[in-house]
């Protein structure tokens, strides 16, 4: 805050949004307003009904119910926007907030525009500041403390148990006429697999954040979730990307495996080997001080040496290696730093950073997509894999 000339920051908005969970120490409190002056502990402003949850955070609290919302609305002539501006005015007066104040948290864009514009016009001594890109909170969240690392590790262990159940289930499904079949004899579909994954996640206390289970052409389109109606085909690579979080919000895990139930084609097998070798090379290079852009270039150079197109040589590439190498992980699936090579990315790996490493190759017209991904924590001495589930391609019954 000092480096950026911020006198205070405010976080408000959706209760389970990452910035809110971060400043409120993992407790989701609807309608909360977090206010922090530079050099002072933060204060949690909450509604009357949220008193108990507010106490759980251990923060100093201020009960917004004591401001009498009905009186504020009457003073504002019934206009809820003006009443909310009055509420912030009183909170800022009571907390002695002044100067440059930055605002964070998720709300509707139009609502934020109207509210912040009106706030800036009405509050004397307050300059409303909006940050774009690597905000103060994004930088703060970039490195994890031991407690945060343990939470990610716990979600990772639970996620891998779900992945293991998924693998065992696929192995138990016999192939007939090129398609997998469920124990009852009916054809197994992508939707059947994802439905079971959601159940297994719920049993672990996790919620599905949009699991990818895609095969064939869909697997060649990196973020295709997969067609729920499509049958699971033997001998065709499946991209299984799972990135859950605890139910109600919390730290994510993120891992991807590419599986083939039965023997893959020679072309698919070679693509898999290239991705696996790329993954091995870049993870060996993970250590403090390494530039994130250099890791992406390393992946591109390797893939190009194997004859694959990449975004380093052609930023508009639609086949081959078409994305960045990875990203930070935490309360959001995608956080800083980004393992990408783009102008302005001067990020380096630091102790406490948690990143995904996920090289992939995609050839939709050939019905081939392969991606491998694990979560790595950067330490003082190097890097530690927080996952480590086997990366075997072929699954056999």
What is the fold's blueprint, element by element?
Layout: E1 8-12, H1 18-23, E2 33-37, E3 43-46, H2 51-56, E4 60-63, H3 69-75, H4 80-95, E5 99-104, H5 109-122, E6 126-129, H6 136-142, H7 146-172, E7 175-176, E8 179-180, H8 190-203, E9 206-207, E10 212-215, E11 238-242, E12 245-246, E13 255-261, H9 266-284, H10 292-305, E14 326-328, E15 335-339, E16 354-357, E17 360-363, E18 368-371, E19 374-378, E20 383-385, E21 394-395
Parallel strand pairs: 1-5, 3-4, 5-6, 13-21
Antiparallel strand pairs: 1-2, 2-3, 7-8, 9-12, 10-11, 11-13, 14-15, 16-19, 17-18, 19-20
- Average pLDDT, rounded to a whole number, is 96
Return the CATH architecture of the largest domain. Alpha-Beta Complex
Major sheet characteristics: 6 strands, mixed
The overall strand count is: 21
Q: What descriptive keywords fit this protein?
A:
single chain; 397 residues; alpha+beta; Creatine Amidinohydrolase, Chain A, domain 1; Creatine Amidinohydrolase; 2 domains; 6-stranded mixed β-sheet; 4-stranded mixed β-sheet; 10 helices; 33% helix
Describe the protein's architecture and organization:
With 397 residues, the chain is α+β, with helices and mostly antiparallel strands. It has 2 domains: 8-139, Creatine Amidinohydrolase, Chain A, domain 1, CATH 3.40.350; 143-395, Creatine Amidinohydrolase (Alpha-Beta Complex), CATH 3.90.230.10. It is 33% helix and 21% strand. The protein is built from 10 helices and 21 strands. It has helices at residues 18-23, 51-56, 69-75, 80-95, 109-122, 136-142, 146-172, 190-203, 266-284, 292-305; strands at 8-12, 33-37, 43-46, 60-63, 99-104, 126-129, 175-176, 179-180, 206-207, 212-215, 238-242, 245-246, 255-261, 326-328, 335-339, 354-357, 360-363, 368-371, 374-378, 383-385, 394-395. Strands 4-3-2-1-5-6 form a 6-stranded mixed beta sheet. Strands 10-11-13-21 form a 4-stranded mixed beta sheet. A 3-stranded antiparallel beta sheet has the order 16-19-20. Strand 19 and strand 20 (383-385) form a beta hairpin. Helix 4 (80-95) packs across helix 5, helix 7 (146-172) crosses helix 8 (190-203) and helix 9 (266-284) runs antiparallel to helix 10 (292-305). The termini are far apart. The model has no long low-confidence stretch (mean pLDDT 96).
